[in-house]
Design goal:
The protein is mainly alpha-helical. Helix content is 43%, strand content 0%. Helix 2 packs across helix 3. The radius of gyration is 20 Å and the shape is elongated. The two termini are 33 Å apart. 22% of the residues are buried.
């Protein structure tokens, strides 16, 4: 997704018009909607300072639009989030279960699964991470996907969790997140 696509997706998720967003970030009333339209169609690319204002008004983490450390764990995870938004269901997370008993060193890296209609025709390739932040993120993301599929959270809550990650993380319920993302009744 381009920066313009992300601005449009988040703006509409927040229920704002182009004019409302333009005015909120400081554009004159006459051209506020036009400027946002130019950003959303990628006719113009907002500078970093403008993206900061847009992120603040839209109440999202600025890393949805750019990162100061390309290739860092957060950048990597944002890429996954936006792929998940662009193509829902493209990323299928699943919990691996440890096979008790260690067997000597082996070149066999096969992970076996019980075939059903949820799996693609050709066996997928899996990967796991040995990097603390990414491991924690993947565990919580799996939980959020499970909650979504079980109807425990809405699609909007799921998107809200992703838009402000990592400030929405609660370590799988172990503490309160810095930013509340669940709708309260």
């Amino acid at each position: 997704m381009t920066v313009g696509d992300k601005i449009k997706k988040i703006r509409t998720f927040r229920g704002m018009t182009q004019k409302e967003l333009g005015l909120a970030i400081g554009f004159d009333e006459k051209g506020a909607d036009n400027r946002i339209a130019q950003y959303e169609t990628n006719y113009r690319v907002p500078k970093t300072e403008m993206l900061d204002k847009i992120a603040e008004v839209l109440r999202v983490n600025r890393q949805n639009f750019y990162t100061v450390a390309p290739g860092c764990a957060e950048d990597f995870m944002r890429t996954f989030f936006w792929l998940d938004e662009d193509t829902p269901g493209a990323i299928r997370l699943f919990q691996l279960v440890r096979n008790p008993g260690k067997t000597g060193a082996s070149d066999d890296t096969t992970v076996r699964y019980n075939d059903n209609d949820d799996w693609p025709a050709h066996a997928p390739v899996g990967m796991y991470f040995q990097y603390g932040l990414v491991d924690e993120f993947m565990r919580e993301w799996l939980l959020r996907q499970q909650e979504l599929h079980a109807g425990e959270i809405t699609r909007g809550e799921y998107l809200e969790w992703k838009l402000n990650w990592p400030d929405t993380c609660d370590d799988c319920g172990k503490h309160e997140p810095h930013i509340q993302w669940r709708k309260t009744e």
